[in-house]
Amino acid sequence: MTARRRLLSTSLTAGESQDLRVVGGHGAWFRLADGREVIDASNTAAPLGHCHPEVMEAIRRAATAPVLNEGWQWAERDEAAEDLVGIAFAGEDWVGAVRFFISASEANDAALALCQALTGRAPLATRERAYHGGAGLARELTVQPQWHGGLSSAKGVAAPPRLATVHELPAPRGARVTGQADPTAGQRWTAGARAQLADSAAVLLDYSQGGIYHSAQYQDQVAALARETGAYWIADETVTGFGRVGGWFQFQHSQSRPDFVTLGKCMSAGGAPAGAVVLSEAVLDRLSGTSWQSYSTYRAHPIAMATVRAHLHVSSRDRIYERALGLDGYMFRKLSEVATQHPSVARVDGRGLHWTVELHGPDWRGWRGEEAEPLASRVVARALEAGALIATSGEQTSLFLAPPLVISETELDQVFDALHHGLTAADQEYGAGVH
Question: What b-and-e string marks burial along 293-314, b requiring 16 or more CB atoms within 10 Å of the CB?
Answer without folding.
Answer: ebeeeebbbbbbbbbbbbbbeb
